[in-house]
UniProtKB/TrEMBL annotation, chain A:
It catalyses: S-sulfanyl-L-cysteinyl-[protein] + uridine(34) in tRNA + AH2 + ATP = 2-thiouridine(34) in tRNA + L-cysteinyl-[protein] + A + AMP + diphosphate + H(+). Residues 138-140 are annotated as: Interaction with tRNA. The gene is mnmA. It is found in: Cytoplasm. Residues 275-346 form the tRNA-specific 2-thiouridylase MnmA-like C-terminal domain. This is tRNA-specific 2-thiouridylase MnmA. It comes from Actinoplanes italicus. One of its GO terms (molecular function) is tRNA-uridine 2-sulfurtransferase activity. Pfam families: tRNA_Me_trans (PF03054), tRNA_Me_trans_C (PF20258), tRNA_Me_trans_M (PF20259). InterPro entries: MnmA-like (IPR004506), MnmA-like_C (IPR046885), MnmA-like_central (IPR046884), MnmA-like_central_sf (IPR023382), Rossmann-like_a/b/a_fold (IPR014729). The record marks H120, Q326 as: Interaction with tRNA. Catalyzes the 2-thiolation of uridine at the wobble position (U34) of tRNA, leading to the formation of s(2)U34. Residues 197-263 form the tRNA-specific 2-thiouridylase MnmA-like central domain.
Automatic annotation (TrEMBL), chain B:
This is Cysteine desulfurase. Pfam families: Aminotran_5 (PF00266). It comes from Actinoplanes italicus. It catalyses: (sulfur carrier)-H + L-cysteine = (sulfur carrier)-SH + L-alanine. Keywords: Iron, Iron-sulfur, Metal-binding, Pyridoxal phosphate, Transferase. One of its GO terms (molecular function) is iron-sulfur cluster binding. Belongs to the class-V pyridoxal-phosphate-dependent aminotransferase family. NifS/IscS subfamily. Its cofactor is pyridoxal 5'-phosphate. Residues 22-389 form the Aminotransferase class V domain.
Amino acid sequence: MSGGVDSAVAAARARDAGHDVTGVHLALARNPQTFRTGARGCCTLEDSRDARRAADVIGIPFYVWDMAEEFHDSVVDDFVNEYAAGRTPNPCLRCNEKIKFAAVLDRAVALGFDAVVTGHHARLGADGLLRRSVDLPKDQSYVLAVLTRQQLDRAIFPLGDSTKERVRAEAAERGLAVADKPDSHDICFISDGDTRGFLESRLGSAPGDIVDGRTGERLGTHNGAYGFTIGQRKGLDLRVPAADGRPRYVLSITPVSNTVTVGPREDLLVDVVSADRPIWHDPASEVDCEVQLRAHGEVVGASVSVTGDALVATLRSPARGVAAGQAIVAYRPDPDGDIVLGSATIAEGIRSDAGALVAEQAATRA
Amino acid sequence: MIFPGGLGEPVAGRPKLEMMAYLDHAATTPMLPAALDAYVAAARELGNPSSLHAAGRGARRLVEESRERIAAALGARPSEVVFTGGGTEADNLAAKGIFWARREADPRLRRVVASAVEHHAVLDAVEWLGRHEEAEVTLQPVDGFGRVDPDGFAELIRAHGDEIAVVSVQWANNEVGTIQPVADLAAIAAAAGVPFHTDAVQAVGQTPVDFAASGAAALTLTGHKVGGPVGVGALLLGRDVPCTPLLHGGGQERDVRSGTLDTPGVVAFATAVEAAVAEREEYTVRVAALRDDLVQRVRAAIPEAILNGDPESRLPGNAHFSFPGCEGDALLLLLDAQGVYCSTGSACSAGVAQPSHVLLAMGADDGRARSSLRFSLGHDSTKADVDALMVALPGAVERARRAGAWKTPR
């Protein structure tokens, strides 16, 4: 129970379903004062108090579990290391994979509990299939797709059939004070929302070049390649305008040479995505489906094939801003909620010859 | 989290366990019926004890009678009883107030001495003096049983006696129950002219406490550990001990403590102290026997359990164990779910357990400190409480041990 409205209502619904529910708040900061203050994050003393009050109102026992070391090792360090390696991590996904449905679940199961209930907006029904929430803008299946079958078998998501609006209304009906608490959006362990500053404090300043992807020309310098994400346009601070006057985007990050490569928007287009460490649920290893390439990102049609430790998706229309380190999640469209077929960690976005042709056409149009 | 029904099989109407065993009397103990009656009766009366009219005089009379009863029960003079808002306030008043007053009189008196196993009410007050008032803080070490060694203490007084503003050593430890050689320590301090404060919050009603005979300059006690209400306590403060107030205002308590006195609280507090002291001998025999039975049964059921604290010189209601391989937190959760209430006895920050500073000071490693659990018995404890513990504990220990080392197959 983060202290937010979703986990509070999820706990209440699980209790109403007849389960014997115990509320657990995770203390994730080594020093509770160092993480964000205010109601937006999920790690503060105030949030702990809000969670405790919700548990009181629901009428369930409540404990705080100290997962600070595990969180730091598996999520915060991973976050920093991934950026240092030129990739773009998703810490919420990692937290689900390593903390909520691993460290917490392990401890809970050993203590005699059967499952972990969370307030994620996703559906997990009797058929065992993970599906998108009815509330598509709030859907969190993307950050849950990393869960294995065994983890899903011990997960309960009571909110997937409700919109966020409905959850808030229910919280108010239940007398839960967190009904109006604002949603958290930012990364909970970066207290001021300044990701680049956070990374700089961990990784130090590492000046390098920003170069043009087509000409190889040096366009400027940066203070650390980790401060950039593929597809990023703002904050490049380039003094030399592009020849055609059009905006430039980050195309790739090369940690070895500490180089950030930029170019026009159409050069971001890729039509093949290779990924590793797949978690695959569908019986077929070659499927035509839809894929999502980042949180709240667009969905594109693709044919996906999974072999051993690799997943390759050939996109039916090219996608932009495909960043290594993000998850590719495969969905099968379904009237009862799109079904998660599996996911993997993006290694790279590739432009095939066919893709290059499309990019050329796009450039011509521009 | 689901416990322990089955997935897809809601256990609606699962009966709550009837059994409830309260083994956390050191945290707070039920009010004695006589104390509750006295509270309610006094709360019906009108009057501020500082008012001069008849209603005020009536309240004042109740307060002063209470002061006399507490003084009589604890070997103090009535004028030595300073009512406070509880033990924490009394500890802060003694540590900070005596330090401030003594240093003001003589700037060389900058050192503050406390045992390493003090309650946070003393420890944090002393550390605050170190950070903000330029005090030299000396934390006196303890042995493996949590005892301050009088010889080592005498050495400290010999070396630094002329610069020590105040010493604070608890009468008995709140976690492991060890009783300190308070009279020996107080005599050593007194011989050097150093005021000796003792936090006797856990000791009153559990072991003989006589303020005059102890030789202490100041002594803390509180209501809710002896069957009185929460929020009222006292500092017994020798008449010649200088002390600067923490709270300024009307100067109601000897100009050392301000604030309108809580008349019903004070009356109930006195009733409880009087009863606890009067019944102490019978209580000690009965509760110590129950505790010994608990210890013996825990050791029989879980042979690797380690009893912490002094095996002889300890509070009659205290049993404190480390369960190797278990987390105290996990044990507490599992016992709580079965209606058995106990404590890890350690300080909390956002509800996160820190390893106990008491056990660490006793030489325990982090693992042993985190694996500990305190069972504390009190005036209404019975054999049924111990029976309930023994039903729940072996399974809880087994489960908590697995929780420490077990991964869900995936």
